[in-house]
Amino acid sequence: MQIQVNTDNTISGREDVVRFVEDVLGSKLGAVSSAITRIEVHLQDQNADKSGPDDKRCMVEVRLENRQPVSATNTADNLQSAVTGAVDKMRNLLDREIGKARARR
Predict the structure, then answer these.
(1) Is residue 23 within 8 Å of residue 1, measured between CB atoms?
(2) Confidence (pLDDT) at 44
């Protein structure tokens, strides 16, 4: 499984952010990792220098073997909450997708 983290130019602490994202992905998606070939995470601060509610955005795109990619997005006040929320949404989505595939067999 390959993980790629993309950030806009307003996100600081890139190495720490990448490590956090990889830890969250590993802990929450580890059980379904055998079906995943690649994960792309896009982090964005929508207001740049200004503060405001839900201005951090995380989009997670997962590529599954022999299937179309699926994505989930979450916005929050900070990057940690945005990442955790998006990965939680992705886990729910993957549970449904993988469950449907197993039910067809």
Answers:
(1) no
(2) 93
> How would you write 8-63 as a 3-class SS string?
CCCCCCHHHHHHHHHHHHHHHHHHHHHHEEEEEEEEEECCCCCCCCCCEEEEEEEE
The tokens for 80 are 């940690």
pTM: 0.87
Q: Which of 98, 92, 99 has the alpha carbon at shortest distance from 28?
A: 92
Residue type (1 letter), 52: G
CATH number for the domain harbouring residue 85: 3.30.160.100
Write out the residue range of the structural domain in which residue 71 sits.
Answer: 2-104
